[in-house]
Amino acid sequence: MLDSVNRAMALQVFEELGYRRDGAPRDEELPVDPYEDIGPQDDIPPVDNFEAYGEAPPEIANDQPAGATARYATITSAAWKGTESEEQRWLAGGRVPSGDLTILSGNGGSGKTEIISQLLVYVAAELQDWLGCLIENGGALVLSCEEPEHNIRDRVERICRHRGIDPYNLPNLHMLFPDLESTWLVHANKDGRLSRAPLLDWLEAWIRNSKPRLVVIDNIAAVFDGEAIARRQVRAFLAMLRKIAREHDVAIVLLDHPSVRGMADGSGTANSVDWRNSVRSMLHLSDPDKDDPDQRTLTVTKSNYGRTGEKVTLRWNGLTFTTTLAGSASPYRAAVDRDVDERFLRLLDRFTAEGRFVRCTTGSGYAPAAFERHAEANGVKSRAFAAAMERLFAAGSIVVVDGKRSKHIARADR
């Protein structure tokens, strides 16, 4: 038997003669396994779970050597020439993006189910505002894995009374109350990888067929059968949901309870930082105010597509939550608001008569920005016009109508 030194020398000579250590010629192609285990790295997805990350096992590119696998394809900016940049759409302006994930967090009893029930009802009932922001309309689904049916019914009936809606005539509002033993969307396997549960397959199929604008999942702890602090599992789970949201252009909102630290610092976060990092928007509803138990604060704690830090003060009015702006305004402030509202309507009439239709969404033709630049704005800024637009939508004075080319704002009586 060769000692270690002689063995090393023999292998070196063997390689110099053109052979690998396994005896095969050096220029012979080794089989490449695109699913070879790459080890437990936090930021690299499990290689047998491409679907969860929005990636399919790729084909071999024409310019790749035989046996190589091309997982990615680059583009250059030339691909954008002659195309329109995709504008970010919002289910709820500045708070809940369309085609993506949002987390709404709050302690138990803070009222997060109440305000998300408002959003569900208003989207389905084709109302155009929710707690001070504009919303899109269409189908809405709540997957309630915590609140029983009678609790959701009570909320829906109260919210409808608040807005004068028939609670029994909401064909676009859908609810599912799965058995408490069958609420999982994913399961964690022994090797740490996630597998889809039947409920997730049902949910994706329902979204594909029904094409809703909003899906609410209540709550994370009831649907995620994995380790909440395991980065790869968290990222894989949220990637599954985000892929569904993107493919079907639906806003998905997940309700969550903050951790002890999240409760202490008011951030509303919980467990692994990847819960926060893997969603595009986060909202946090505070506990009741110590001196006023009917008051809450809704804060935008993260927004990849908009401005972070918006705070909305809410007040319980006996039926549900409302913003405090209208009820607490001074007589002077109320008079100023009425003047801006009337100016908004006059400018809307002028623009409409001139065939210059304006929109409620940001970008080209955004009504508040267009009105600010007009000579009859009389110094009123875009932000004040935006607040007036929200008040007028809430009052039913203006609506969004379908034009020849796009949607625009019009008086409700037209």
Automatic annotation (TrEMBL):
InterPro entries: P-loop_NTPase (IPR027417). It comes from the Bacteria. Residues 21-49 are annotated as: Disordered. Residues 30-40 have a biased composition (Acidic residues). This is Recombinase RecA.
